[in-house]
Specification:
There is one protein chain. It is built from 53 helices and no strands. By secondary structure, the chain is mainly alpha-helical. Helix 32 runs antiparallel to helix 35. The two termini are 38 Å apart.
């Protein structure tokens, strides 16, 4: 062990390190690890690295392998762990041993600890006669880790024992803080980190005393505890509370203690506003009357730190850590009492002023600590609890109260806007940032933008815009004076960062935009076309235009000058053909959104929009196609000259991204959709001409041509799919797609055998044509189904299965198509079942399995007779049985949903088929479902498995109960007792009898699942039993 530990930590060869790691893992799983690790920990000659490894191993063994110990060994293990705990001083070894003791306490009920529980037993042993100098530090270590382990899933204990242990600890909270006080009084002052550890332990027990565990998975109903176990009056007068508050005032002399005191005070603040605490009707802001005394102790001490925070703000970063702790306290107080604060009570306004000071702090990370408070306060004032009528209050009184609060808080949120708006400016040197630095700055900007939105919701969009637009107007005025002859070129003397930051602020409040007739916003959007040509500036300008697209639509409907659209298109055109990928993408997105919002007003702009579309198609030629075919042919884009394209592109030589072109096509599709049918027809033809021409070149009727490049095929079929998807004229789409069907079919047939990616995109194109045109393309169902069936027989592409599901979704209820779909589905599903004959096949082709069961599910909902029949259903259910335990998430979900929907089918024909198919497979299905629920599938699938079981019970009644019961009895008795199994069986019976429900069934299955998953060995034993 010493040799392998040395190799793991210090050997220079990575392969040797891996071998050592594997050896040590194997050792840790062995039965010998108990005694070997115990002996090495008692051996003073062992190295610290060996001691740590052994302490970690013992902790792991206690947590996961406790059931492997022989009967009666728990007592000797406990005594050895305590002896070792007392032997080691502060450090990682003692912490691991303390965690091992806490895990042991989770396994052993209170009766095994003298009937008083683990905590009381340990405290008595370590504070009684004969206790040595290390006893109290060890007790304090235990007092720190015990509450952190309450409700933990790390120890492999039964669910009821885990809940009982958490309950024991919650009820022991008052005793625990008494023992913490003893440690504080009697431990020598020279003890290292004494106060920090005391404060940590106190914070943990205060948290636990309120019923708040460190796990979110524990059901509070099952816990059955009535918090708080330490009342607020006790906490207000407790010496440990006084210690925490006193330590706050000593932040300058001991920063480490201050940080731990902050943690403790935050827990004390949270303890005063627990949702489960009773709140009197007259108590404002959810502070229970019993907690008022504690609040009156805490809040003044926290607010007394405002001078220290102001001093830290002037320290030029020297005291940022202290400021961070103070800001956290201010934020905690504000968030806890936000409802009280929102009433505008004078004695509750101090946290608002303190948090405004936080927003003005030079370091943005510290300022951001207040943002969640402003979010909650805004929601409370605008539409949350702050708007609710008080008891007996009239509508007039409520309106007057809202007005009073608005007048009170509007200046506060104006100051908030002024404090945070300057944080959005790009700093000097940002061009040289690493990727992580850029991401952090972007996240910060999002946070500031959200805060501006919340502030605008209170002060109003018009007032917020007036504040934010001031710096922008100044910058635009400078731009106008520096621009000669109306040219919009970049100028080195212009501060583009100030312009960009101001625009970002305006963009941020778009959700709280001013009224449609706001002339300030009209002026601002009009001026975007005058911005200098800088990539980041045009990027933000484009996204600002995009953000206000809905406002723009409302403004146009109210009679705004259409020249505003012209100005916006000017700036978007410049951005679209700039040599910057992000800027082009933002402009394409903005064009799509503006076209979508204002489509009804864009008929006069059709010619320039089509010109832009043609330019984009040429400018965006794929690099692979450009290399294969040379430069673009003018005829491919309606005769546009290459020189014109080059001019539009700024002579950069770089093409537009394919996704950007799709955004432009989508936007133009919205415009065409808003046109009358007779006007839309020629525009649609013009849109499709360059795409169709290129497809005909790639897939001519002669089959001896060289196969086209995959990327080019994908490029043009994606463009075609976008047109067919977003032009909402089904009649026109049906006509053009019927004309294009021969080339689409040739493309799919020639790509289907060897190019799965191209085939997938062609199938997607067909999908959107069918979804738009619907019944108008009924005549294409037979040729499409025949083509899919032929291609699938040659190569089982998942995309073909998905394409068939689209056929069924669109035409499954059309009686004229039923027979065609039935023949196709029967051949395809039986062929798929033959290829997925074992679980390894599912693992090798999860996408095929996923789409196969997706197709089956669609058939059940649209045309059940084509799958729920004696020719197809047996093969599909047998396929589901084979792949039920596949780990691929989508394939697993599709399988379970298909089974659920099939078993829920209630029409007469389906019921008759199920009565013939299910009996011979019911027992196997029940056993496989149970095996999945008890360990072979992730716990996230339990709800899906429960739904399938419920459907099977509905379908087969008491017979299904017998199937599941036969599977349940296979679970080994040492894993789950007869009583444990009976809970699930009873839930099954109640469900069939109509006195139970899916929720009760799911909870009983969850309980048994947790029993069977509590350790890897137990889970493996259960799976082996259910696989037999």
């Amino acid at each position: 062990i010493a040799h392998q530990t040395q190799a793991l930590n210090h050997h220079p060869d990575a392969s040797v390190k891996r071998q050592a790691e594997q050896w040590l893992k194997t050792f840790q799983e062995s039965a010998d690890a108990w005694t070997v690790c115990d002996g090495l920990l008692h051996d003073p000659a062992s190295t610290p690295e060996v001691h740590f490894l052994c302490s970690q191993t013992l902790k792991h063994k206690v947590q996961r392998d406790f059931d492997d110990l022989p009967a009666g060994a728990a007592g000797s293990l406990r005594d050895s762990l305590i002896t070792l705990l007392l032997k080691y001083g502060e450090g990682p070894v003692r912490t691991q041993l303390a965690l091992a003791v806490a895990s042991l306490a989770a396994h052993l009920p209170a009766a095994e600890w003298g009937g008083v529980g683990a905590l009381q037993w340990l405290a008595t042993r370590m504070t009684g006669d004969g206790a040595g100098p290390t006893s109290l530090p060890c007790l304090l270590e235990l007092l720190t880790v015990f509450p952190q382990e309450a409700g933990s899933f790390r120890p492999a204990v039964r669910p009821d024992r885990r809940r009982a242990f958490a309950k024991e600890l919650v009820f022991a909270s008052l005793s625990a803080i008494h023992f913490i006080s003893l440690c504080l009084q009697h431990m020598p002052e020279t003890t290292r980190n004494k106060r920090e550890r005391v404060l940590d332990a106190y914070a943990a027990w205060v948290r636990l005393s309120q019923g708040r565990l460190n796990t979110e998975d524990l059901n509070t109903e099952d816990l059955a505890v009535e918090p708080p176990q330490i009342d607020a009056v006790t906490l207000a007068a407790h010496p440990l509370t006084a210690l925490a508050l006193e330590t706050l005032s000593r932040h300058e002399t001991n920063e480490s203690e201050f940080d731990h005191a902050v943690d403790a005070v935050c827990e004390l603040v949270r303890s005063t506003v627990m949702d489960s605490a009773p709140v009197a009707a007259e108590a404002p802001g959810r502070i229970p009357p019993a907690c008022v005394a504690l609040v009156q102790v805490l809040v003044p001490h926290v607010m007394a730190l405002r001078p220290a925070f102001a001093a830290a703000a002037r320290s030029q970063g020297a005291n940022d850590e202290i400021a961070k702790g103070i800001a956290r306290l201010f934020a905690e107080v504000g968030e806890a009492y936000v409802i009280l604060i929102a009433t505008g009570a004078p004695d509750a306004f101090a946290p608002v002023e303190a948090l405004l000071e936080v927003t003005a702090y030079p370091e943005t990370d510290i300022a951001a600590m207040s943002f969640y408070f402003w979010h909650r306060l805004s929601h409370t004032l605008v539409g949350g609890i702050g708007e609710r009528l008080a008891e007996g209050q009239s509508l007039e009184e409520a309106a007057a109260e809202r007005t009073r609060r608005h007048q009170l808080f509007c200046p506060v949120f104006i100051r908030l806007i002024e404090n945070v708006m300057g944080r959005l400016r790009y700093p000097d040197g940002f061009e040289h940032w690493h990727r992580e630095e850029r991401q952090n700055f972007k996240r910060m900007r999002y946070a500031v933008a959200d805060t501006l939105t919340e502030a605008a919701a209170v002060v109003g969009g018009s007032r917020a815009l007036q504040i934010l637009v001031g710096p922008l107007q100044e910058s635009l005025a400078c731009t106008a004076s520096a621009t000669a002859g109306g040219a919009v070129t970049a100028n080195a003397s212009l501060d583009w960062r100030a312009l960009e930051a101001a625009l970002y602020c305006v963009r941020s409040i778009s959700k709280e935009s001013p009224p449609p007739d706001d002339m300030l916003l009209v002026s601002l959007l009009t001026s975007l076309a005058d911005l200098p040509t800088h990539p980041q500036l045009l990027y933000t300008a484009a996204l600002t235009a995009s953000a206000y697209s809905e406002w723009l639509s409302a403004a146009l409907a109210r009679g705004a000058n259409p020249s505003l659209l012209q100005r916006l298109f000017e700036v978007l055109h410049r951005a679209l053909f700039l040599d910057d990928t992000d800027t082009r993408g933002a402009a394409a997105l903005a064009l799509k959104h503006i076209c979508g919002a204002t489509a009804g007003h864009l008929a006069p702009f059709l010619e320039p929009l089509m010109h832009l579309y043609s330019t984009a198609l040429t400018y965006a030629l794929h690099a692979g196609e450009r290399g294969a075919t040379g430069v673009a042919r003018a005829g491919d884009v309606g005769g546009m000259a290459e020189a014109e394209v080059s001019k539009a592109a700024g002579s950069t030589g770089r093409g537009m991204d394919a996704e950007d072109v799709l955004q432009i096509i989508e936007g133009l599709g919205y415009v065409v959709s808003a046109l009358p049918l007779e006007q839309a027809d020629p525009v649609l033809s013009a849109m499709l001409y360059p795409i169709a021409r290129r497809l005909l070149q790639m897939f001519p009727e002669e089959v001896d041509t060289e196969p086209p490049d995959t990327e080019v095929v994908v490029l043009y079929f994606d463009r075609l799919a976008t047109v067919l998807r977003y032009v909402a004229h089904p009649e026109l789409v049906a006509v053009v797609f019927r004309e294009l069907w021969p080339v689409v079919a040739r493309g799919l047939e020639r790509c289907g055998d060897k190019d799965e990616r191209a085939a997938e995109h062609i199938c997607r194109c067909i999908k959107y044509a069918l979804r738009t045109a619907r019944h108008r393309l009924t005549d294409l169902v037979a040729p499409a189904a025949t083509l899919y069936r032929k291609l699938f027989a040659r190569r089982q592409h998942a995309s073909l299965l998905f394409a068939m599901s689209e056929l069924v979704r669109s035409f499954g209820r059309d009686e004229g198509c039923t027979e065609t779909l039935r023949v196709t589905l029967e051949e395809v599903m039986c062929g798929t079942a033959g290829s997925l004959s074992k679980l390894a096949d599912f693992d090798a082709a999860p996408d095929v399995a996923d789409d196969a069961f997706l197709l089956a599910k669609v058939c059940v909902s649209r045309c059940p007779s084509i799958i729920i029949n004696l020719r197809v259903l047996p093969a599909v259910i047998d396929m589901a049985l084979v792949g039920l335990h596949v780990q691929h998430r989508e394939a697993s979900c599709s399988t379970l949903v298909f089974l659920r929907n099939t078993l829920q089918a209630r029409d007469e024909l389906s019921v008759g088929v199920l009565q013939q198919v299910l009996p011979s497979r019911g027992a196997a299905l029940a056993q496989s479902l149970l095996a999945g629920a008890l360990g072979s599938l992730p716990t996230s699938r339990l709800e899906d498995v429960t739904d399938v079981l419920a459907a099977m019970l509905t379908c087969a009644g008491k017979t299904a109960v017998m199937w599941v019961q036969a599977a349940v009895v296979r679970v080994p008795d040492q894993v789950a007792s007869a009583a444990d199994k009976a809970v699930l069986i009873e839930a099954l019976s109640q469900y069939v009898e109509g006195i139970g429900n899916t929720r009760l069934l799911g909870r009983s299955l969850d309980e048994l699942s947790e029993l069977c998953r509590r350790s890897r060995r137990i889970r493996d034993a259960v799976q082996a039993a259910l696989a037999a």
